[in-house]
Design goal:
Radius of gyration: 18 Å
CATH superfamily of the largest domain: Winged helix-like DNA-binding domain superfamily/Winged helix DNA-binding domain
Helix content: 40-55%
Number of strands: 6
CATH topology of the largest domain: Arc Repressor Mutant, subunit A
Distance between the termini: 45 Å
Largest sheet: 3 strands, antiparallel
Bound molecules: zinc ion
CATH architecture of the largest domain: Orthogonal Bundle
Number of domains: 2
CATH class of the largest domain: Mainly Alpha
Structural class: alpha+beta
Low-confidence stretches: none
Length: 148
């Protein structure tokens, strides 16, 4: 997503475009993202908001934030998804462990350039590049090898 955009404005515009109310609770969920680690679960978000917002609102708002492009799912292998903020951050890659679900970040460098170049050639406007590798992390490999 464009780094110059104000996330609150993006969310307000998104809610209005869907005929949804801009409520204090919805904005509180967006603001709570700043207090979370890079990769979080829905339950972490609720823990931050516990006293102010109902769990149903937290989960529904998280879904809306994802649709608005402000949050993205980064991990699909586990029973519960991990999310991250999709604004105010450099584009980066993920290495995702298929066993423990851990997520490691790395700078995308050339990979980002390849995607942007391809987009440019097709006349395509890209606002987000996500590079992900799936496999087994060193910790899980060590654990697996020690069992053999
Ligand atoms: Zn692992
Ligand atoms: Zn990330």
């Amino acid at each position: 997503m464009d780094r110059k955009l104000d996330p609150v404005q993006v969310f307000v515009d998104f809610l209005k475009s869907r005929g949804l109310n801009v409520t204090r609770s919805r904005l509180a969920v967006l603001q709570a993202l700043a207090d979370l680690p890079r990769h979080f679960e829905a339950a972490d978000l609720w823990a931050v908001l516990r006293s102010r917002v109902s769990p149903a609102t937290v989960y529904r708002t998280l879904d809306l934030l994802e649709k608005a492009g402000l949050v993205r799912k980064v991990e699909f292998g586990e029973a519960h998804a991990h999310y991250e903020r999709a604004f105010g951050r450099e584009d980066h890659g993920h290495l995702i462990c298929r066993i423990c679900g851990g997520v490691w970040e790395f700078p995308v460098g050339q990979a980002q350039h390849v995607v942007e170049q391809a987009a440019h050639e097709q006349g395509f406007f890209v606002d987000e590049v996500v590079v992900q590798g799936y496999g087994i992390c060193p910790r899980c490999r060590a654990r697996r090898d020690s069992r053999v």
